[in-house]
């Protein structure tokens, strides 16, 4: 076998091709856009590269056939609750069903990380945000949503035979939103009655022509609800606006909701159409023709699924039922004006029982499971899973 570091444009093309060769025979696989994968390694597009280091390799057999790939990275800001030692990451792992080949890829990444002072490696993770390329798919091998990892079932064995252990499970949920096939739990409507009669509260969906206002509201709710959790940092209004602006080409106003108490934002629920239903027709490309094709399908096609991206409620209203009020308001609008049939909630860590309970209470069903693994370099060190969030 021959291991080669990715250094040239040809190497990058080979890095992309490995994923295609491993998955192309699976009818449920959707080829990611090449630009979305490569952007993780571009300092101009990935701000995390300012605080770390990344390397990629491709693996060939003795006949020069592509059989594997992996990336390793050190991100100074990467930390999970409870971590007392530096942890590196691996990601973008693909490999044929051969443990020896997988071990060579893992060993190479491990050696590189040890040289940089790391004491463990988590994977597969992304050198960037956790809403992209995170975890090994172990259940739910149906078509992935946008920027979600997809892999053959045997990957779980490759990781675990090497010695990786489950750091946490990433649970995805699915919920039918067809008008007659699903009804929310009665407690949602009870909560709705309580707040609907109070003029101090109102639920609204965003408007594209007011993105700066909603970006500011997003930053307020996010910072109160999530920024104090370990591993999260505050989101500025400017960053929120950049995020919403980047979503604008695919954004559906009636899928993004806020609740206000006396005109102050206190709850948010952000969803997007599942654009992978369009991307599956583009063959990984996003040039001029692909963009035109994307626009035509988006404009004249009917998207049947949307994806839950983020949810937050400020501490003073947690447990009040105000989030239930918002969901009922959104349900009325989405069912009456849109063609969506299914909502998939993006992954939620098994270390976060509060958010898992919200998903269960919605009446959703588990649709996928991914695993973030951890490998301790000191094999005598006691392994601990991700702590439960209180």
Describe the structure.
The chain folds into 2 domains: 2-169 and 371-376, Aminopeptidase; 178-340, 3-Layer(aba) Sandwich (Aminopeptidase), CATH 3.40.630. Strands 1, 2, 3, 4, 5, 6, 7, 8, 9, 10, 11, 12 and 13 form a 13-stranded mixed sheet that branches. The protein is globular, with a radius of gyration of 22 Å. The protein has 390 residues and is α+β, with helices and mostly antiparallel strands. Helix 6 (211-225) crosses helix 7 (237-247). The protein has helices at residues 9-23, 34-38, 99-115, 155-162, 186-196, 211-225, 237-247, 276-279, 288-300, 322-337, 353-361, and strands at residues 2-5, 52-60, 66-75, 87-95, 120-123, 136-139, 165-176, 201-205, 256-261, 264-273, 305-313, 342-349, 365-376.
Number of helical stretches of at least 4 residues: 11
Which fold name fills CATH's third level, the topology of the largest domain? Aminopeptidase
Summarize the helix and strand pattern as letters. Answer: EHHEEEHEEHEHEHHEEHHEHEHE
CATH superfamily of the largest domain: Gcn5-related N-acetyltransferase (GNAT)
> Helicity range of the residues?
25-40%
CATH class placement of the largest domain: Alpha Beta
Q: What structural class do you assign from the helix and strand content?
A: alpha+beta
What does the main sheet amount to?
A: 13 strands, mixed
Ranges where pLDDT stays below 50 over 5 or more residues in a row are none
Keywords:
Aminopeptidase; 13 strands; globular; alpha+beta; 390 residues
Question: Helices, strands, pairings?
Answer:
Blueprint: E1 2-5, H1 9-23, H2 34-38, E2 52-60, E3 66-75, E4 87-95, H3 99-115, E5 120-123, E6 136-139, H4 155-162, E7 165-176, H5 186-196, E8 201-205, H6 211-225, H7 237-247, E9 256-261, E10 264-273, H8 276-279, H9 288-300, E11 305-313, H10 322-337, E12 342-349, H11 353-361, E13 365-376
Parallel strand pairs: 4-5, 11-12
Antiparallel strand pairs: 1-2, 2-3, 3-4, 5-13, 6-13, 7-12, 7-13, 8-9, 9-10, 10-11
Helix pairs in contact: 3-4, 5-10, 6-7
């Amino acid at each position: 076998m021959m291991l080669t570091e990715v250094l040239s444009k040809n190497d990058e093309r080979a890095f992309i091709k490995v994923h295609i060769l491993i998955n192309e025979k699976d009818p449920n696989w959707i080829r990611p856009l090449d630009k979305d994968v490569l952007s993780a390694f571009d300092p101009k597009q990935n701000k995390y590269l300012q605080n770390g280091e990344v390397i990629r390799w491709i693996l060939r057999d003795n006949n020069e056939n592509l059989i594997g790939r992996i990336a390793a990275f050190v991100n100074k800001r990467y930390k999970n609750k409870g971590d007392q030692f530096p942890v590196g990451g691996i990601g973008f792992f693909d490999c044929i069903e051969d443990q020896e080949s997988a071990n060579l890829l893992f060993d190479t990444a491990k050696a590189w990380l040890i040289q940089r002072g790391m004491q463990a490696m988590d994977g597969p993770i992304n050198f960037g945000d956790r809403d992209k390329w995170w975890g090994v798919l172990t259940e739910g091998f149906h078509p992935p949503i946008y920027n979600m990892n997809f892999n053959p079932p045997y990957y779980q064995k490759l990781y675990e035979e090497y010695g990786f252990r489950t750091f946490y499970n990433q649970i995805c949920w699915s919920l039918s939103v067809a008008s007659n096939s699903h009804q929310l739990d009665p407690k949602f409507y009870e909560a709705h009655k309580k707040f609907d009669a109070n003029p101090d509260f109102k639920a609204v969906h965003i408007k594209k022509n007011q993105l700066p206002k909603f970006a500011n509201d997003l930053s307020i709710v996010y910072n109160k609800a999530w920024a104090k959790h370990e591993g999260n940092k505050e989101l500025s209004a400017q960053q929120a606006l950049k995020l919403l602006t980047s979503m604008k080409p695919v954004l559906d106003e009636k899928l993004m909701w806020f609740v206000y108490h006396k005109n102050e934002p206190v709850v948010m629920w952000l969803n997007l159409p599942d654009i992978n239903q369009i991307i599956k027709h583009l063959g990984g490309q996003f040039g001029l023709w692909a963009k035109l094709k994307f626009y035509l399908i988006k404009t004249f096609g009917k998207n049947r699924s949307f994806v839950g991206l983020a949810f937050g409620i400020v501490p003073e209203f947690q447990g009040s039922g105000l989030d239930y009020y918002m969901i009922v308001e959104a349900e009325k609008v989405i069912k009456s004006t849109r063609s969506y049939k299914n909502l998939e909630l993006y992954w939620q860590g098994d270390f976060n029982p509060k958010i898992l309970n919200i998903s269960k209470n919605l009446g959703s069903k588990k649709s996928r499971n991914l695993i973030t693994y951890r490998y301790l370099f000191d094999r005598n060190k006691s392994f601990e899973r991700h702590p439960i969030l209180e």
